[in-house]
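Ticket #4471: structure output looks truncated?

Reporter: J.K.
Steps to reproduce: submitted the chain below (156 residues) through the standard prediction queue, then opened the result file.
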Amino acid sequence: MAAIHSKNTKPELIVRKYLFAKGFRYRLNHNRLPGHPDIVMRKYRTCIFVNGCFWHGHEGCKAFRIPKTNTDFWENKIARNKQRDHQQRLQLAKMGWHCITIWECELKPRNRMQTLVALEYTLNHIFLSDHSKGYAPFQEYHEMAADQRQTDENVE
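Returned output as attached by the reporter:
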């Protein structure tokens, strides 16, 4: 398992190259966010997780099969991974972030373009819905600063 890397995997590179070619800009593995999302897009308040079907327990996928040896270990490990993923997504949602999960099997050559176009559509939809409501990511900070200026003027 030491030879399995968690960064710069082939499915992740496919998604990153597509997003960059379409003009989206992002950060990689942002360490201040829960779960260190694979791709973080601050402008869209969106985190993208590119998950391997086996390691994250993608139900109904051919790539997700419990090994026949040491099954208890693998069942527990994958269950812990799924529980941790769920908790991290809840934390991100509480912080106001949108979470998108792309599975490895969705990036196989026959489904790849459909998945990537759907991702692009989803990102544009998120951007438009957030900005049509007048949502500003740091709106609370600006309101606090304005309140502070008013109290400073009243004190003088």
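Triage note (M.O.): checked the attachment and the full token line is present. Helices lie at 10-21, 71-94, 112-132, 139-155.
Status: closed, working as intended.
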